[in-house]
Amino acid sequence: MSAETPTPPDAGGPMLKLEGVCKRFGKLEVLRGVDLELRRGEVVCVLGPSGSGKSTLLRCINLLEPPEEGRIMLEGTEITGEGMKDGVDFVRQRVGMVFQSFNLFPHKCARDNVSLAQVKVLDRGQAEADEKAESLLRRVGLSAKLDEYPDRLSGGQQQRVAIARALAMDPHVMLFDEVTSALDPELVKEVLDVMRELAEEGMTMIVVTHEIGFAREVGTRVVFMDAGVVIESGPPAEVLDNPKHERTRRFLGLVLEH
Amino acid sequence: MNFIVDYYFDFTGTVFTDGNFDAILSGFWITIKLSIISGILGLTWGLILAVLRQLPGRPLAPVRWLAIGYIDVFRGIPLLLVLLLISGISVFGAPIGGEVLPKSIASPTWFGQTSPFWYGVFGLTITYGAYMAEVYRAGIESVPGGQMEAARSLGMSHGQAMRFVIVPQAVRRVIPPLLNDFIALMKDTSLVSVLGAVEVVQAGRDIQSETYNGTGLVMGAILFLIVTIPLARLVDYLIAREQRRVGRSGGSDDGGGEEVASDPALVGGGGMTA
Fold first, then answer.
1. Quick check: A252 contacting B, CB < 8 Å?
2. Where are the alpha helices (DSSP H) in B143-166?
3. Strand A95-98 and strand A204-208: pairing?
4. Can you tell me the distance from the alpha carbon of B25 to that of B27, in angstroms, rounded to the nearest whole number?
5. Cβ separation of A105 and B165 shorter than 8 Å?
6. How much is the pTM?
């Protein structure tokens, strides 16, 4: 995978940089000035209570929800403000996203789910796109399910198809929005395993999750968010075992209690 | 009670004599042609209206308002009135339309059909286009928002997402309510008789006034039922099949079918036209 990702000219600088990103829904301030920097190959796990703005942060990064204030730079190019018009295409060609609710296309089989956007957006030939789809589905352990429709797949299988679908666009960064939260407990591992493999291969990832174990083992950094701001950020061992901030401690206490 | 049987069910004396049955059949053939041509044109016009109504962005707001205004107007006035307004332009209103429009358009006789036939097609199309636009819209809106987001996050444009992801899902869901609308349209073709088209109801009335007997109309009703009852059963079957499909994928978030089942525009599409 990493071999297929072209190296941008500014390989030395940050992959993704957020400065003071704010987002409001009406009067509700969901993000109140978020700063975040991501280097190539980093796996940043974002933790925090529900309503803290984690998902909105991801949706701002790929401009599904354009931020009202602040700047987002992707590979050295600003995608917000003036750059916004072309920013949408720029960011969506480089950033893949996986959703909590899978959002597979129910009228397409697994293979077509993965090949559709390759053909329509990247202008790949159908045969080439299908080949890529099949090899990605094999990688996520679904070589036997190429022709199955989403309603015949388990949640874990659907989510793995969704990951393959995002990877098919050769993204430089992958965003994971609570991708295991809608899954039955016994199906969580198969999805996390795929993500772990991806991380080991060097993919740059932002993972919004409640899986503390995953954050500890796979994350290169853990970010704790509350009420629309980053409360603390650092290596997993530091933030998870030795949190500086009272709110982080309280949250981890509640999550790790049982 | 004998007079009821005599008046409504005298098939041998009223229908199967003097070529009356042939007259009813050719009337029904006009009904079928009116239904199919107006149905196809209405489906197309409705889809155009629905897409215009869904266009994104502020600059296109006037287009959306025009589409909404059109739909509101034609959903809100009786089809009979629309038909009378259209036909009035050249049949009764002397040469108002005839002076401005060429005769082939003001009094069309295309493909060997009469002008009242084409007035009927026009009135049914512009009215049912408005009904069907609402069905399409309900179908488009019943596709979960996550579908558009997923398509957009893969780099598709709004148009690509509509064309390859949203509309294909919406169309499958709207087939049953569109068929319901088609049944209603078929029954409403009888209104075209007031313009002078001899469709099956007019054919029955002609026989009624000649023979002082209503059996010709009953024969027309029977012909309607032969077509509409199987269509209604087909609608039931398609709805049941769709619900089974949704039930199977129940747990996942991309079903969204329950919204369809509870959406009045999708379930009883033909209701307000009766």
1. no
2. 145-153, 158-161
3. unpaired
4. 5
5. yes
6. 0.76
